[in-house]
Amino acid sequence: MGVAAVAVEKRLPRLGQFGVSLTRACPLQTPLDVFEFAEGEQSDACRTFLNNNVYRAIDVFFWDPQCLLTLFETNNCTDPGVVTGPNCWTPDGGIAAYKVTCPYKTS
User: Mean pLDDT lowest for which of 18-32, 34-48, 60-74, 82-96?
Assistant: First the structure.
């Protein structure tokens, strides 16, 4: 077994990964930042980006279907928010904050 295989096996299971861009274009040519969430990092807390960046596009590379990734135009998550799915999105008001809710239950 090679070194790379050992490194992959020791990684925590992941809930999801997404990339963001300051440019409103899909698909993302080169994400400015990439965020990855390991199991155990989920919470319903409002999260902002470094330096309070407002991103114009998000590309959800993969996401656990039992979890929700909600995007917000405001940096305090007070607007209604938009639940994302896989693929690239360019919300009209940009993305100032997000929540990772897991597990998500409909009832």
Answer: 34-48
pLDDT at position 55: 94
Distance CA 9, CA 73 (A): 37
Residue 97: inside a domain, yes or no? yes
* Residue 19 lies in domain: 14-101
Q: In which band, very low, low, confident or very high, does the pLDDT at 96 lie, cut at 50, 70 and 90?
A: very high
Instruction: Classify burial at 27, counting beta carbons within 10 Å of its beta carbon; exposed 0-12, middle 13-18, buried 19 or more.
Output: exposed
Asked if residue 7 is part of any domain, the answer here is no
Q: How many domains in the chain?
A: 1
**What is the C-alpha to C-alpha distance for residues 84 and 86, in angstroms, rounded to an integer?**
7
Measured CA angle at 106 (ends 102, 107), to 5 deg: 115
> Model-level pTM?
0.77
Residue 107 included in any domain = no
